[in-house]
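Troubleshooting entry. The earlier prediction with adenosine-5-diphosphoribose gave an output that would not parse, so I re-checked the input for stray whitespace and re-submitted. Clean input:
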Amino acid sequence: MRIEILEGDITTRPVEAIVNAANSSLLGGGGVDGAIHRAAGPDLLEACREIRVTLLPGGLPVGGAVVTPGFKLPSRWVIHTVGPNRHAGETDPALLRSCFRESLRAADSLGAQSIAFPAISAGVYGWEAGEVAKAALEAMDNFAAETPSSPLELVEFVLFSTATADAFRSVFG
Ligand code: APR
């Protein structure tokens, strides 16, 4: 599994699945959530509303993941996850590891060969980029060990600033 650390806009990435740092409502927001909904078009919100009515009436729990099509995005799928909100006292890194793990498992079950992550929780939800990178690395290592035959060949971390990218580069080496 190849890992790439890039600076840029995740909505432009030509990978099979991109991960959205959503909130539990799944009904959109700012940051990368807003960017993904804008780029995917209104069908994405429609698909999320459908999930809320059927599969997840109570919303998506922190650390969980759920898949929708990508609609107008270059990526075939969007994997929505909800990161821990430090401002709400959600300070357990296991919750962040769960976001990365559940998203990797979702991509694996789709048979995706490539996935792109943003820096989940490193924006509105107030986590340090270095903490997020550490959780991502631990989740990646555990996933590779538990799923040696995954079709997933490429994992991108697409970061929206040089500072965030540098934090990921220093953790991933
Ligand atoms: N591409 C890649 N990364 C992006 C993009 C983009 N187009 N836009 C923002 N980011 C980065 C931010 O700079 C930050 O480093 O994504 C990271 C996560 O920030 P947020 O989007 O604020 O996500 P998060 O901290 O998990 O907070 C989630 O914010 O937008 C709302 O609905 C969302 O309520 C939820 C909360």
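This one parsed fine. Residues 2-172 form a domain with the Leucine Aminopeptidase, subunit E; domain 1 fold (CATH 3.40.220.10).
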